[in-house]
Amino acid sequence: MKTDLRFPKNFVWGVATAAPQIEGAAFEDGKGESIWDRFSRIPGKCHNGDNLDVANDHYHLFKQDFALMRKLGVKHYRLSLAWPRIYPNGDGAVNPKGIAFYNRLFDAMLKEGITPWVTLFHWDLPQALEDRGGWRSRLVTEAFATYADTVVKAFGDRVKNWITLNEIPCFTNMGHGQGDKAPGTNETQKVINQTFHHAILCHGHAVRAVREHGGKGARVGLTDNSTIPVPVTETPADIAAAKAWFGDVNAHILGAISGGGYSAAYLKRCGADRPEVRKGDFDLISLPTDFLGMNIYSGTFVRAGKKGKPEVVAFPPDYPQTSCPWLKIVPQSIYWGTRLAHEVYGAKNIYITENGCGYDNEPFVDGEIQDLHRRDLVRNYLKELHRAIGHGVPVRGYFLWSFMDNYEWQDGYTRRFGIVHCDFKTQKRTPKLSAKWYARVMEENRLV
Ligand code: NOJ
Q: Is the terminal CB of the chain with fewer CB neighbours within 10 Å at N or C?
């Protein structure tokens, strides 16, 4: 019997990582300090006091990592560049050894038949920029524009798929509001709104850089972790409530980049805390992109409340979750996230740039990590993605987070998201059961 869970022809299957989480070599070959190198050294901030100094030592082991990817049949790989490796001070002099490293990396990747999808910024702001105001200051946007020009010029012959920034709310709001991510401060809403604005302005600069220097076939888009409502019942009233809620809570990012400005509702909500916007900012911010990257892990249940107004239904204590309290298992989030991004904000080519799960307890059984929990979670999310595609949502690809266990930010090395296990003492990589399963999915272009 033939399965109906086949994906469209040319669907992009891949895996994802990010430089600060895997590279290590945090102070080697002239790399500058990042805000995460600094933050992870503040006692009590990161689990176990874990830092990024060595991580997966991918800086030295990338050839073997690409060989393993090839063995698993990985053809598309999302990675990020470390800004402080290229510009140790954030701006000023380029570090030639940083450029040389990524040249070696891309050459090795292409030799293994792997297509790079490159994120310019995945949270590792050079500490030198933080010292001059960081995301709070407009200076960061000028430094970023130069960095974007430099890397697109340097690698644009081999890299054709560019992602501007990863998950703006995390390094702005969580970094400066909640304080649980670097730089770990607790600032006013006005400051946070300004960091949002500078981040979307950097997105615009990256789009411009790719258009100017990317060469033939270059494509660019943002990776957003939109806040996703899931209608409690799939009925017109709850769907309408979810749709309205989605538009509202994502207005400052998805709305801003696709709509040519901040919505009146968003500005009203900001009140006196509205960000300072300069003339011409939105010419950059709303430059057309080629795709939208979405990192989708979970969702929020929403229904039509009084007078049809959206009402959030909180998770009860026993709702199923992974080892991350924030990662409640909501497979329908991938259906509603992609569908609503398309319907509300007109996203045309959508790539899931991250999806996956983190667990703390994954023992070897007879030499194998039998992570049925991960295989099952991913399979259930992919079923919902398949449903979205069947309903006409333009989803073109899927990247599983993550290729291997790595530095999970403030949760350190205990929280494992990989389909490949990493022994951080020996650096031995061992594909888990989920990696073998995903290899078949990629190969057969269907859920097995
Ligand atoms: C989002 C981030 O982009 C990535 O760096 C992180 O490790 C995963 N989600 C899991 O939390």
A: N
Report yes or no on 309 lying in a domain. no
Q: Catalytic: which of 23, 130, 167, 384?
A: 167
The answer to whether 232 and 304 are in contact (CB under 8 A) is no
Residue 223 lies in a domain: yes
Cis peptide preceding 402, ω within 30 of 0: yes
Q: How far is the CA of 121 from the centre of ligand 1 (A)?
A: 13
Distance in Å, CA 319 to ligand 1 centroid? 22
Write out the chain's pLDDT in tens, 448 residues. 665 899 999 999 999 999 999 999 999 999 999 999 999 999 999 999 999 999 999 999 999 999 999 999 999 999 999 999 999 999 999 999 999 999 999 999 999 999 999 999 999 999 999 999 999 999 999 999 999 999 999 999 999 999 999 999 999 999 999 999 999 999 999 999 999 999 999 999 999 999 999 999 999 999 999 999 999 999 999 999 999 999 999 999 999 999 889 999 999 999 999 999 999 999 999 999 999 999 999 999 999 999 999 999 999 999 999 999 999 999 999 999 999 999 999 999 999 999 999 999 999 999 999 999 999 999 999 999 999 999 999 999 999 999 999 999 999 999 999 999 999 999 999 999 999 999 999 999 999 9
| CB distance 222 to 257 below 8 Å | yes
State the total domains in the chain. Answer: 1
Residue 74 belongs to domain with CATH number: 3.20.20.80
Kindly state whether residue 46 falls inside one of the protein's structural domains. Answer: yes
Ligand 1 pocket check for 193: Cβ under 6 Å: no
Residue 288 belongs to some domain of the structure: yes
How many other β-carbons are positioned within 10 Å of the β-carbon of residue 186? 10
- What contacts 420, CB < 8 A, 6 or more positions away? 68, 403, 404, 405, 429, 430, 431, 432, 435
